[in-house]
Amino acid sequence: MTTTFDPHAITTAASARGLTKTYGTGPAAVHALDGIDVDLAPGRFTAIMGPSGSGKSTLMHCLAGLDRPSAGTVSVAGVDLRELNDDQLTRFRRDKLGFVFQAFNLLPMLTARQNILLPHELAGRSARRRPRPGTPAEIDATVKAQVDEVVEILGLTDRLDHRPSELSGGQQQRVAIARALATDAAIVFADEPTGNLDSTSSAEVLSYLRRSVRELGHTVVMVTHELDAAAYADDVVVLADGRVRTHLSAPDADELVRALGVTR
């Protein structure tokens, strides 16, 4: 049984109020987002759905600080993104957010292990520089334990020394997910993460995303147009014409079909 999502019953991982995004001006202006109010729950797997042009990718980009809204507010992990200048926003994305895209975006010259550890290096989080209490050896052990846990959950232990060209598409996407999860990310944003995968690999990747939420306590927000992908999520936000049509908790396939106004 689905229930209407109550945004006031929980502490939010991310929220938007009056969120508007307009591209262009005058008669040619396109209103990608039209005054959206939404709250996303921490420690849950949320899917954002809607027909082409509904604004789902634009919403994710604004929530993730990849695009500035035309109006309204966005708060992520208790931080009002309006208060951050470009440099601060870049650091916030680097330190607090994880990203998984349709294209795996792995560096081909690096092994899977090196790709996973790359955010730590870019953020200055090596054993001697990471801003955590403790000795370098203690910090290094903490990072290693964090990465090892994610790698085990994602089933990558025996693939860490392989380069992307030596991995299947599903394995490459799992490395990309591990890279996003093996940090202190408050939220991991996934934009059509199974778009380049076959059905078997897609199911595998989605299952691992769900496990990362349930077993590691991560918060995942995924944009998808696929009903089968959304079925893995705890909550589903359905957009239409730049507005939230409905926000559902644990909907079944029939309820999603009705919310989207499509036929299977």
Structure in words:
By secondary structure, this protein is of the alpha/beta class. It has one domain (about 5-260): Rossmann fold, CATH 3.40.50. Helices cover about 35% and strands about 25% of the residues. The chain has eight helices and eleven strands. It has helices spanning about 55-65, 85-95, 110-120, 135-155, 170-180, 200-215, 225-230, 255-260; strands spanning about 5, 15-25, 30-40, 45-50, 70-75, 80, 95-100, 185-190, 220-225, 235-240, 245-250. It has a seven-stranded mixed β-sheet, with helices on both faces. A four-stranded antiparallel β-sheet has the order 3-2-5-6, with helices on one face. A hairpin with a 2-residue loop joins strand 10 and strand 11 (about 245-250). Helix 5 packs parallel to helix 6 (about 200-215). The longest helix is centred in the middle third of the chain and has 18 residues, at about 135-155. The chain is globular, with a radius of gyration of 19 Å. Residues about 1-10 and about 125-135 have low confidence and may be disordered.
